[in-house]
């Protein structure tokens, strides 16, 4: 099975635990999630959609790990499985050495406070009828942390940290702009001092200038509180800028995984190559046309397990070769730290 | 003067306000905008900058409580603001049409794709038979590269993917070969590879037909690849306008510069911090007395001139009006760059 | 497809059987002996028991129920001792009047709701909108019999525009030959326009009185839906093709605004067809509603029982019709 090695050469720019060997904080092992599509009628065959297909990823303590891919690639489902918002069909999720899928409800609660999630649309993920103070305090109440006064102090502290005036905490979320609301959502996630933040498209709903503010802020608190990020994002430019390592997902499986610079500068999987070349570059000096490789067709989820490579129908290399038709490629380490699931890695290059 | 290129659209001092219980919001503040035949003009700005209100004002489709207060919208030389509703209905869709942002909600869910394309064709071509309209609609679907076009005519929007729906939107927009298409964030809701497909189709169609396009977007990458010219909007004003290369190379307005710098770039080394613009855009109901960007400006924050008086539009290009910026320091900043 | 139709039908059947069984049970549990009604208060215990024997009232209740349902299906709906007629005959006499009134009341409620909802949402007119909302509250809050009285006082007594209570047709006119038993329809079939106009005139006031409440409800629903739909981008896109306001509203906004009101409309329609006691009383309308209430007071169970089953069938049938309509109007349901 595919197992991603732990020896990652991390960048050294101001990161925590420099020099020390990093430890695996979160280990996803052979994660599978099936959705049952339809089961009307008695004798009818049930249709199963495999949203996550045997994904294994190790996330190191202190790193920012990016999950990128197009809609329907399974990146959000993975996040939801990690937070147990969905029950995985099979596989393991090991957090700080404990398999959280095997824990009892009580033990789970203890682990949960170390994993928090932030969603894409802050106005949708914050209860519009609650005051900001109560929203941020709620996790403390649920986990029975501190008394009233201590909690109030902690809430004020965290709000100040994310740049929201604690005096305005009696207002409700809609009184705040998108960027501010996302900071409130972050405050709620940070209030329990977690180790891991799962960030599901946290800046996608924000304007460019506000996006930069939030990304900078995320970097600051990561250094300050030694946080680990699992960053789910469809914007490749943000992924390259913000993540240490990135996994590209296609139809529920990892297509390629590497250091973000390596992945975007030297993509080996034809899907990654196409993705990278499809991103419009804000530089009119660049040659406009021809430099782009436009992928044909669309992501079409397959119900039954099909033979061969899952990307072959859209593969710019044709995908008609017998190996592509017959065998689904395993995720293999092509060069140290650079994993790719393709029979012909590196054959397709970014046109330039 | 005889060699001056032909205007498709010329907006003059257009002002659109929304009168609500919470005050008056001038979403478009005395904006002027020229679009020449066959040119692609990008309008860039953040949410609430007035770019969508400008688009709807041009079409005369601002909904109450919004209304056009003053100004002209000259389309092919005719002022749309003076036209009656029935006259406007013969202009919309034939001379100017719209592509809307969200393909999920931009098509009527209970009508077939074919009907929705034919509707515009039949409306503007009296005497066209349904058969003929249908034939043309199939052609249009083929133009936007919808596979099995004839069969898909009877499909409903929910049976299409986002990318396919946006192609249908393009087919509707080009159905009557308009001179101008206003595309409001046409690919924002799409994935990158789908976005690339849709943009390629759209670009080749408008270039081959010589259609002028106003492309409203917040994605600077799309502007750089697609547009000939750019207008940058902030708080209801166009604060800078230039051709695309000039604007990206020599942004004169501090807002344009900040915007360009705050986008992470794939081809740049990315150590250290992203540049970010401090603060939030001002509320349109309570605009500052001076320059509306002053409180967030890298060049003018705290300067009395910027706080007290609104800057005038300044021409900084070699050719008159080729590069305009609305900043007190436009000249200085331009000279400092070159 | 066949599967979904089958499951639909079995569900409907279960609903009808359930409703009839519960009604049957309740009516038997209630105090009061139907046999006593027949033999009279002075009859001896022996006579009473003999009558109960004849009516099968000694048998276990499920046997009674089974026998009743079996007879019901074959057209024997029992005998109304209170009226001295078979129940089926009574229904044939009374139901058409209620159905006709219900249909017109529904047409009034629906048309008025559509027109006023369109007016309320046209452009941005706060006064018009407020007026329509007032009318809606008025319609939902006003007791129908009270409205019926006022309509009679104003339009019959004072203005003399419409005929008064007590008849479906002027005495001077002979009813048209019975085909559907609905007077206006039969008149049209017979080609007697004068009779149609006269019958229609008799229907106007009771239909308005009966339709006011559903109108108030529907106009509120439709107005809200229209406002929602009008803000949908696709309306803007339609307008950008050059389609005018009204064409866009009628062709695109209305069908979409109707969708969420369809279920409610179906229920309202079924309810209206079942007759209304108070309006029928005020207008002295020979409908099913007043018959049922009179029968309850007389403990004439056979009538009540039949009414409950017929109502259940009506609801189930109209519900099925609504589902069918959804399938036709909304392609997403067909899926």
DSSP strand content of chain C: under 5%
Q: Mind describing the biggest β-sheet of chain B? A: 8 strands, mixed
Class from secondary-structure proportions of chain B: alpha/beta
Shape type of chain B: globular
Task: Walk me through what this model shows.
- The complex is a heterotrimer of chains A (352), B (338) and C (335).
- By secondary structure, chain A is α/β, with parallel strands linked by helices.
- Chain A has a domain at 129-184.
- Chain A has 11 helices and 12 strands.
- Chain A has helices at 75-82, 105-112, 122-125, 132-142, 148-162, 178-190, 208-225, 236-242, 260-265, 270-278, 322-326, and strands at residues 24-38, 47-60, 64-68, 90-95, 98-99, 115-118, 196-200, 228-233, 245-250, 253-259, 332-335, 338-340.
- Chain B has 338 residues and is of the alpha/beta class.
- Chain B has 12 helices and 12 strands.
- Chain B has helices at residues 51-59, 85-91, 113-124, 130-143, 149-152, 162-174, 192-209, 220-226, 244-249, 254-262, 304-308, 330-337; strands at 7-20, 23-36, 40-44, 66-75, 78-79, 96-99, 180-184, 212-217, 229-234, 237-243, 313-315, 324-326.
- An 8-stranded mixed sheet of chain B has the order 6-7-8-3-9-10-12-11, sandwiched between helices. A 4-stranded antiparallel sheet of chain B has the order 2-1-4-5.
- In chain B, strand 11 and strand 12 form a beta hairpin.
- The two termini of chain B are 29 Å apart.
- Chain C folds into 2 domains: 2-77, no CATH class; 88-334, MetI-like (MetI-like fold).
- Helix content of chain C is 76%, strand content 1%.
- A two-stranded antiparallel sheet of chain C has the order 1-2.
- In chain C, helix 5 crosses helix 9 (193-230), helix 5 (87-121) runs antiparallel to helix 12 (262-273) and helix 7 packs across helix 9.
- The longest helix of chain C has 38 residues, at 193-230.
- The model of chain C has no long low-confidence stretch (mean pLDDT 87).
- Chain B binds chain C through residues 56, 59, 61, 63-65, 85-86, 89-94, 97-98, 100-102, 105-112, 119-120, 123-124, 156, 158, 169, 172, 175, and chain C through 123-124, 231-234, 236-245, 251-252, 255-256, 259, 329-332, 335.
């Amino acid at each position: 099975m595919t197992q991603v090695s732990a020896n990652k050469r991390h960048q050294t720019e101001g990161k925590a635990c420099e020099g020390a060997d990093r430890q695996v904080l979160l280990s996803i092992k052979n994660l599978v999630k099936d959705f049952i599509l339809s089961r009307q009628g008695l004798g009818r065959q049930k249709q199963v959609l495999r949203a996550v297909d045997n994904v294994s990823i190790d996330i190191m303590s202190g790193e920012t790990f990016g999950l990128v891919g197009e809609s329907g690639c399974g990146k959000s489902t993975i996040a939801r499985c990690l937070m147990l918002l969905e029950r995985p069909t099979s596989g393991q999720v090991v957090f700080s050495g404990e398999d959280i899928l095997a824990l009892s409800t009580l033990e789970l609660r203890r682990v949960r406070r170390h994993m928090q999630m932030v969603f894409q649309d802050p106005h949708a993920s914050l209860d519009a009828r609650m005051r900001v103070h109560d929203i941020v305090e709620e996790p403390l109440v649920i986990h029975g942390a501190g008394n009233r006064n201590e909690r109030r102090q902690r809430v004020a502290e965290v709000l100040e940290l994310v740049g929201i005036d604690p005096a305005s905490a009696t207002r409700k979320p809609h009184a705040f702009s998108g960027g501010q609301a996302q900071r409130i959502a972050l405050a709620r996630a940070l209030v329990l001092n977690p180790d891991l933040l799962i960030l599901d498209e946290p800046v996608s709903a924000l304007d460019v200038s506000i996006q930069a503010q939030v990304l900078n802020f995320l970097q600051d608190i990561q250094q300050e509180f030694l946080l680990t990020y699992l960053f789910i994002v469809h914007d490749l430019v943000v992924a390259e800028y913000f993540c240490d390592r990135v996994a590209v997902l296609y139809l529920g499986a990892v297509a390629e995984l590497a250091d973000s610079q390596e992945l975007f500068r030297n993509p080996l999987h034809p899907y990654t190559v196409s993705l990278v070349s499809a991103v419009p570059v804000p530089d009119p000096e660049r040659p406009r046309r021809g430099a782009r490789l436009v992928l044909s067709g669309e992501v079409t989820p397959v119900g039954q397990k099909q033979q061969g490579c899952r990307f072959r129908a859209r593969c710019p290399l044709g995908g008609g070769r017998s190996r592509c038709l017959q065998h689904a490629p395993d995720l293999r380490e092509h060069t140290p730290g650079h994993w790719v699931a393709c029979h012909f890695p590196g054959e397709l290059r970014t046109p330039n | 003067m005889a060699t001056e290129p032909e205007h498709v659209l010329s907006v003059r001092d257009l002002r659109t306000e929304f009168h609500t219980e919470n005050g008056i919001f001038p979403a478009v503040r005395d904006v002027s905008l020229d679009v020449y035949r066959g040119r692609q003009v990008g309008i860039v700005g953040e949410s609430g900058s007035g770019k969508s209100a400008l688009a709807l004002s041009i079409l005369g489709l601002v909904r109450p409580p919004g209304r056009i207060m003053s100004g002209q919208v000259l389309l092919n030389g005719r002022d749309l603001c003076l036209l009656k509703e029935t006259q406007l209905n013969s202009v919309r869709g034939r001379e100017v049409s719209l592509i809307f942002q969200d393909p999920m909600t931009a098509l009527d869910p209970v009508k077939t794709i074919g009907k929705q394309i034919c509707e515009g064709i039949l409306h503007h071509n009296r005497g066209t038979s349904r058969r003929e309209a249908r034939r043309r609609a199939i052609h249009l679907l083929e133009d936007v590269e919808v596979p099995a076009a004839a069969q898909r005519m009877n499909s409903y929007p929910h049976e299409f993917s986002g990318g396919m729906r946006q192609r249908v939107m393009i087919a509707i927009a080009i159905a009557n070969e308009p001179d101008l298409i206003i595309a409001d964030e046409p690919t924002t809701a799409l994935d990158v590879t789908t976005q690339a497909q849709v943009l390629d189709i759209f670009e080749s169609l408008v270039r081959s037909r010589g259609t002028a396009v106003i492309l409203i977007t917040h994605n600077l990458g799309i502007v750089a690849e697609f547009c000939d010219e750019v207008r940058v909007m902030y708080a209801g004003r166009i604060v800078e306008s230039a051709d695309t290369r000039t604007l990206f190379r020599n942004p004169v307005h501090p807002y344009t510069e900040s915007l360009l710098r705050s986008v992470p770039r794939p081809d740049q080394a990315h150590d250290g911090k992203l540049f970010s613009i401090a603060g939030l855009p001002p509320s349109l109901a309570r605009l500052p007395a001076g320059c509306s960007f002053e409180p967030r400006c890298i060049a003018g924050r705290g300067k009395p001139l910027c706080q007290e008086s609104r800057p005038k539009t300044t021409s900084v290009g070699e050719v008159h009006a080729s590069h305009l910026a609305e900043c007190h320091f436009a000249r200085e900043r331009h000279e400092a760059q070159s | 497809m066949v599967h979904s139709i089958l499951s639909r039908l079995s569900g409907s059947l279960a609903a009808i059987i359930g409703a009839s069984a519960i009604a049957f049970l309740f009516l038997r549990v209630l105090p009061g002996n139907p046999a006593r009604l027949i033999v009279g208060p002075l009859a001896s215990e022996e006579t009473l028991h003999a009558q109960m024997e004849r009516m099968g009232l000694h048998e276990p209740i499920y046997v009674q129920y089974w026998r009743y349902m079996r007879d019901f299906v074959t057209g024997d709906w029992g005998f109304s001792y209170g009226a001295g007629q078979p129940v089926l005959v009574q229904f044939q006499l009374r139901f058409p009047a209620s159905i006709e009134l219900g249909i017109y009341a529904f047409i009034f409620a629906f048309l008025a709701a559509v027109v006023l909802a369109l007016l309320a949402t046209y452009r941005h007119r706060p006064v018009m909108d407020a007026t329509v909302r007032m009318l809606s509250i008025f319609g939902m809050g006003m007791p129908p019999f009270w409205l019926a009285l006022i309509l009679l006082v104003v339009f019959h007594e004072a203005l003399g525009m419409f005929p008064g209570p007590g008849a479906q047709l002027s005495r001077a006119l002979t009813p048209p030959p019975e085909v559907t038993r609905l007077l206006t329809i039969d008149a049209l079939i017979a080609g007697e326009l004068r009779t149609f106009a006269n019958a229609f005139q008799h229907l106007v006031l009771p239909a308005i009185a009966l339709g006011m409440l559903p109108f108030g409800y529907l106009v509120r629903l439709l107005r809200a839906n229209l406002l929602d739909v009008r803000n949908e981008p696709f309306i803007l896109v339609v307008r950008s093709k050059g389609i005018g306001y009204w064409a866009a509203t009628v062709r695109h906004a209305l069908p979409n605004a109707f969708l969420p009101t369809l279920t409610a409309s179906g229920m309202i329609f079924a309810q209206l067809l079942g007759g209304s006691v108070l309006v029928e009383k005020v207008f002295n309308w020979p409908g099913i509603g007043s018959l049922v209430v009179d029968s309850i007071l007389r403990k004439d169970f056979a009538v009540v029982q039949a009414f409950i089953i017929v109502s259940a069938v009506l609801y189930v049938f109209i519900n099925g019709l609504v589902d069918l309509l959804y399938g036709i109007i909304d392609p997403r349901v067909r899926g």
